[in-house]
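Quick illustration for those who missed Monday's session on complexes.
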Amino acid sequence: MASKKALVLLSGGQDSTICLGWALERFDSVETIAFDYGQRHHIELEARLEVLKRIGAIKPEWSRRLSGDHSLVLTELGRISKTSLTREAEIVISESGLPSTFVPGRNLIFLTYAAAVAYRRGIATLVGGMCETDYSGYPDCRNDTLDSLERTLSLGMDQTFEIQTPLMFIDKAATWKLAQELGGDALVALIIEHTHTCYIGDRTKRNSWGYGCGECPACELRAKGFDQWQADVN
Ligand code: ZN
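Prediction with zinc ion bound:
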């Protein structure tokens, strides 16, 4: 029987790092992929290298299963989107109800590139940290969108692809809990010390839940989830 392989979209943030732990528990061979699209801060991309360097130390089988990393440069995506992630602009909520950090179609593009890499690598499962319960309501993170894309990729490449999104229906407190269940205190510590989620790119402030400005929407969400998780366990 062929070994079970997965390709994880690893940005270097909290959610994708937990997805990597989730995949390392379940698959015999786990590869990772990142996209450089001219993010305003390369901090996330540096964070993901730290995660990759350290996550194998949590469990010997995780170390054995980690099977290579891919990095694609998609700067055109940054150039056409003109959002707060790529320009020095304030993060605001637009009339459509979406934050200005929204890059139209970003996850569709990422997953399509990921599928192309997976095809060549003989991998059928893509894993991503997309989440419907996220405050932002990104339409390309919705389960319906990803179900549809899964079908499109499978038809368009004539190979059955599966898109796994372990965080789709859980909130941030449950995400921290999942990290604890997957990799214990060591994975929680790795997330706090080495992942990056802050939109402002602040790594000077060390909070109980990790580094970040503490005020941007991403920090607020992360902090609130952490506090709630702590309150639940204590
Ligand atoms: Zn922040």
